[in-house]
Amino acid sequence: MNEIENIEIFLIFATITLSVLLSALSISAYRKSRLKKMIYASIAYSLFAIFSLNLLYEEFVLERDGGETHPSLITEIAIHSIPLIILILFFIGIVKKEKYSNSSQHSDISH
């Protein structure tokens, strides 16, 4: 394994780790704030981790076995759709307005 492959492995593992961490933080933030935006962010971060795991599998497991495998068309479409879905989820999370009940607005004002 050369130095470039080591850097690739490090970057993929760092991406997976950060994605899982940010997903967990988003879930925690949702539990505290009940903002639905956090759900969208958590799903997007989780999808990013899945995408990175697939990249790790394709780049290092399949290549090391020496054989080129041909995944099904459905698998290929699903994997390559993940970045688009991530972008859509982040967009929804950013532009979506939260609806607050009157009781939550009063409690925010009094604090």
Q: What are the salient characteristics of this protein?
A:
mainly alpha; disordered C terminus; 4 helices; 111 residues
Shape: elongated
First CA to last CA: what distance? 58 Å
For the record, the count of structural domains works out to: 1
Count of β-strands? 0
Unreliable runs = 103-111
Beta-strand content bin: under 5%
For the biggest sheet, the summary is: none
Helix and strand succession? HHHH
The whole-number mean of residue pLDDT values reads 83
Helix content: over 70%
- Structural class given helices, strands, pairing? mainly alpha
Radius of gyration, in Å, reads: 19 Å
The total of helices stands at 4
List the helices and strands and how they pair.
Elements lengths: L2 H31 L2 H29 L8 H23 L6 H9 L1
Helix pairs in contact: 1-2, 2-3
Give a verbal description of the structure.
The chain is mainly α and 111 residues long. Helices cover 83% and strands 0% of the residues. The longest helix has 31 residues.
Quick synopsis:
The protein has 111 residues and is mainly α. The chain has one domain (13-97).
